[in-house]
Amino acid sequence: MARRKIIAGNWKMNMTPSQAVALCAELKDLVKSDSVDVVYCVPAIDIVPVAQAVKGTNVQVGAENLYIEDKGAYTGEISAPMLVDAGVKFVIIGHSERREYFKEDDAFLNKKVKKAFEAGLTPILCCGETLEQREMGVTMDWIRLQIKSDLVGITADQVKSMVIAYEPIWAIGTGKTATTEQAEEVCKGIRECIAEIYDQATADAVRIQYGGSVNAGNAAELFAQPDIDGGLVGGASLKADFGKIVNY
User: Fold this and answer.
1) Catalytic residues
2) What 3-state class would DSSP assign to 212?
């Protein structure tokens, strides 16, 4: 089946609200596309101004994080209902930076995935291996464990609607990129893992992105692979080149 490509920018902790609005204006005409879904995943403080700035365009708004409770004494956190009310459609869950710096484990991330679906948000679930794990030859063992753990209790219909992002940790922000063959091999392995957990129809429906130093020069080759359905783009999403990636 033909899966619609999805190109998501992960802004990380960049862009003040005024800078975010200016970037949206700069990118507005560059990211126009009828053939792919375009998402800006932005810092919490930028969500409201960005949602206003992209109104009427083809761009959808995503968040970089959410908490597992709807409200309460959780100082500094942001809830799924808050995101929905602000106009958010997607949310990144399990990015390697959240896993490493904030010690988010798979049991906690599973709760986040469930909360996202409960609120009507589309999760962009991240997975990926370290350079050490790749050199040890356990890449797929590690990623399969992440996927299986993070999707406990998630239905096939939910999985069909979500996005999985493969990001080799050694290629995030380093300028290093997995070869096209390496990226396709792992994305294909993720799809096979989904088929084992659920069924082939679910595996065929779920969109799998590649992330890790995606740029205007390598996007076309990466996205041409049969199991790579777009990209989760870091640094390159903050400049005009993002338009070239969207229109690869």
Assistant:
1) 95, 167
2) coil
Write down the residue that tokens 């659920």 correspond to. Answer: 198
Q: What is the pTM of this model?
A: 0.97
Q: Which of 55, 59, 54, 62 is nearest to 12 (CA)?
A: 62
CA–CA distance, 239 with 30 (Å, rounded to integer): 10
Q: Check: CB of residue 38 under 8 Å from CB of residue 68.
A: no
- Average pLDDT over all residues of the chain: 96
Which residue in this structure is represented by tokens 């890790």?
Answer: 212
Strands 207-211 and 230-233, how do they pair? Answer: parallel
In contact, 229 and 39? CB cutoff 8 Å:
no
Residues 6+ apart with CB under 8 A from 141: none
Which CATH class, in words, describes the domain spanning 5-246?
A: alpha beta
- Domain borders along the chain are 5-246
Q: How far apart are CA 232 and CA 20, in angstroms?
A: 18
pLDDT in tens, 88-119: 999 999 999 999 999 999 999 999 999 999 99
Tell me the C-alpha distance between 182 and 92, whole Å.
23
- The C-alpha atoms of residue 244 and residue 216 are separated, in whole angstroms, by 6
Q: Is 183 in a helix, a strand, or coil?
A: helix
- DSSP code per residue over 129-165: --HHHHHHT-HHHHHHHHHHHHTTT--HHHHHHSEEE
Taking only the tens place, the pLDDT of each residue in 176-227 is 778 999 999 999 999 999 999 999 999 999 999 999 889 999 999 999 999 9
